Amino acid sequence: MSPTMVDARTATSDVSASFQELLEAIKKVQPSDRALYDVFAPVRKRVWRKWCLRRLSVAMGLLAICLAVYYVPSVNWHVSAIGRLLMIEMLPYWDWTPLYRDKCLIAKVKAGAASKKFEPTVPFPDDCVVCRNFGMVPVRENVSYETLYRHHLMRNVPIVVNDVYPPWNEHKHYGADWDRFLLDLEVLLLANPCDFRTNLLFKPSFAKSSAIARMVDLLAEDVENDRNAGWFVQLRNCAQRTVKKTRTMFDKPYFYATHWEPPYTNWLLLSRAFEGASPITPNMAGLAVVHQLRSRLSITLRPRVECESSCQELSVTLHAQQSLLFSTTLWTFSYVPSDANETSLTFVTETYENW
Question: What sections of the protein cross the membrane (predicted)?
Fold first, then answer.
């Protein structure tokens, strides 16, 4: 044992002995409460001062963190990103997307019948006037952000961009190797996507990994094309790891502005030779960019309920290499699985509308 440790133990025992002697002396004297209060006043002040300083330090630290989050852009961005990821993880347990779309979380109190009687009748909401004379989706090429902002984003007018992705057989990761893409697709499916629909499995949300792996084999290009061989697969990537993986699978479009936040979730829509299908309406929110990477897809954009009297329903056939950009605050996205003999592949990203 070192001399330092021996000295420390000796000092501790001496302090304990002195404190014990002090207690015995107090018991013998039996001073009044007031006398004890006065004697230990300096000690109480020191303890109280130490307690206040500790609490003040914690409060100042929390205040400094709050100010950094509010005023420092990099800190604010990282905290916001963590908050978005937490909200995405909550989606399977609580669907908060209706709150995201609403302008007010508390509904307005309905006016009485007497007040309604004298209110002027408004033919359509003010927000819906942007699409009063809009009846078709324009198709553009070499689109700049300024063009998107002036002619589309400010009015929530959809647009189709022609020159976003190269042909599928020139894809830098897959090209003509469809099996390699299926391997990455299997990884996404086994990662428990938060919105998974298909006609190849019964109760796909509860499917086991082995069933999903066998299902992927049915998506091979050499599947016999008869009336019972048609299929569709829809999945949404909500987990951070799967969203990151899709970023390596598909590049960001050239018109995606640098100040836009990265997509917080994305979708993969696949189908082939699926005849007689009814429209499917995925639950999307925010700014959606629909990339048609292979074959074609029939899409319908329906105006929100408040704007049905002002906006027309838009039908778009999205072909390979085309991308559709629209806002879900005004439009609802529906699609019909492809009945073509070539597998249709569509990649959809969702991000927050922050111009």
Answer: 52-72
Q: Residues 272, 254, 261, 150: is their CA dihedral positive or negative? A: negative
Return the pLDDT at 114.
41
Dist CA 102 CA 90 (whole Å)? 19
Please give the sequence-ordered ranges of beta strands (E in DSSP) within the chain, or none if there are none: 139-140, 159-161, 195-198, 231-237, 265-272, 287-294, 296-303, 314-319, 323-327, 331-336, 344-351
Token duo for residue 204: 């796909």
What domains are defined for the chain? 25-107 (no CATH), 125-350 (2.60.120.650)
Cross-strand partners of 346: 269, 292
Whole-angstrom distance, CA of residue 194 vs CA of residue 239: 8
| φ/ψ (deg, to 5) at 327 | -110, 130
Determine contact, residues 336/298, Cβ cutoff 8 Å: yes
Strands (E) across 281-320 are located at: 287-294, 296-303, 314-319
Contacts of 215 (CB under 8 A, 6+ apart): 189, 198, 200, 201, 207
- The Cα 95–Cα 210 span in angstroms is 29
Return d(Cα 264, Cα 255) in angstroms, integer: 18
CA 328/CA 286 separation, integer angstroms:
6
Give the global pTM.
0.64
Query: pLDDT of 101-146, one tens digit each?
Result: 565 666 555 444 444 444 444 445 677 888 877 778 999 998 888 8
Instruction: Please state, rounded to an integer, the average pLDDT across all residues of the chain.
Output: 82
Question: 123 CB contacts (<8 Å, ≥6 apart)?
Answer: 309
- Kindly state the helix (H) or strand (E) to which residue 13 belongs, with its residue range: helix 3-29
* CA dihedral sign, ordered 145, 150, 154, 157: negative
Q: Is 331 exposed, middle or buried (0-12, 13-18, 19+ CB in 10 A)?
A: buried
Partners of 317 in the beta sheet? Answer: 298
**SS3 of residue 328 by DSSP:** coil
| Alpha-carbon Rg for the chain in angstroms | 32
